[in-house]
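#lab-general

N.A. 3:47 PM
ok so I finally got the sequence cleaned up, no stray characters, all 312 residues accounted for. can someone with queue access submit it? mine expired

B.Y. 3:52 PM
send it over

N.A. 3:53 PM
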Amino acid sequence: MTLSTFGNDLEPTSHWLEVMFSICIVLSGLMLFTLLIGNIQVFLHAVMAKKRKMQLRCRDMEWWMRRRQLPSRLRQRVRHYERQRWATMGGEDEMELIKDLPEGLRRGIKRYLCLDLIKKVPLFHNLDDLILDNICDRVRPLVYSKDEKIIREGDPVPRMVFIVRGRIKRCQSLSKGMVATSVLEPGGFLGDELLSWCLRRPFIDRLPASSATFVCMESIEAFGLDAKNLRYITDHFRYKFANERLKRTARYYSSNWRTWAAVNIQFAWRRYRMRTRGPVISVTENGEGNESNRLMRYAAMFMSIRPHDHLE
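B.Y. 4:20 PM
back already:
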C-alpha cells in the first residue's frame, strides 16, 4: 500500500483489487527497467569489444612501424587509412563473414548489399539480372584514403574499380612533359583496359598496362572486380558483352577514350583556327618561350596514343 501511493498524497486503499493492480504495475516497471539496463550493458560490451579490437590492431601496427622504422609520412598514411577503414566497415570484412555460407544464401546477401551500387554504373545499366547476380557475387568493397595512388601509369591493371563515393584524379603523360588530367566522379570506373583484354581474340595471358595514374582526391568508397572474375563473366556471357550498344557505352564512359578524344578535338580546333584566322599570338614578354610551349603542346597532341579495345 505504501509503494502504490509513493510520491503523492493519495490515501492508501484497502481494496484488494486495487492493491494487486498496484503491485503488478510496480513489478512490471522493475522488470522493464532491468531489461533496459541489460540491453545497455550488452550494447556497451559490444562497443567496447570492437573498440578494444581496434586498439589492439592499432597497437600492433604502431609496433610494426617502429620496428621497421617507417618515415613519419608513411606512418600518417597508415593511421589515416586504418581510421577510414574502421569508420566505413566497422573493423569487419563482410566478405570473409559470408564466404562459408551456402551459395544461394551468399548470393542473396551480396545481391542485397551490392545490386543498387552496381546499377549506378552506366556500363551495367542494360545487363540481364543473371549477369548482375554473377557480378554481385564476385565484387568486393574497397576503401582508399585521400592522396592514395590506386594505380600508376604503366603498371599491370589487376582489377576494374567502380566508384561509389568520392572523386579520383586521372593523370596521363602525353609527350614533351605535357600531362592530360581529368576527374572521375561517382558512377565512373577505371581499369577499362581489362574489358578490352578479356574480349580480345586471340587471348593474351599478360595483364594490360595502365594508361594513366589514378590518385584519390578525397576518401574513396568503391567496389572492385578482379581480372580473373571479369574474364569469367565475359567468357560465360560473351553474347551480351559483344553487343554493339554495350561496346559503345564502354567507349563513351572510358576515361582513356575521353582523354584521346579531348586531345584530338583541341588539336583540330587549333588547326582550324590557324587555317582560317592565322596563328593566335598571345602577348607575352617572352615570345620564344610562348612558341616553345605551343610546339610542345602540338607535339603532345600528335603523340597522344589512340586507345585500343575490342571494337578494333
